User: What shape does this take?
Amino acid sequence: MKTTAMASLKRITSAQMEAEHQALLRAFVYDAEGNTLTLHIRYPYEVDLDTIQTPSDLLGQVHHLSMKAWMTNVHLHFFIQRVCEIKEWNIYR
Assistant: This one.
C-alpha cells in the first residue's frame, strides 16, 4: 500500500502549535536596559540592538545569523519580527 506525503506528516493540534509558538517567543529575550536581544536557541547568543539602526542593518544581521548552524528559517522569522516590534518598525509597508 502506498503512503502519501500527507499521510506521513505528523498531525499537530492547535494547542501544540500554540505551545511551540510560545516557546519560540520565550527564546528571544529583550533587555531594554542593555538594549540587547538574547537568542536562547542552542546557547545564549546576544545581539546588541544599538548596532541595528536601519532596516539595512537588520538585513546585515539576518545575513550574519543565517550562517549559524543552529539558526533556522523559523528562528530568523521570529528574530526579524521581534527586532521590528522593539524598533517599532512596520514589516509590511
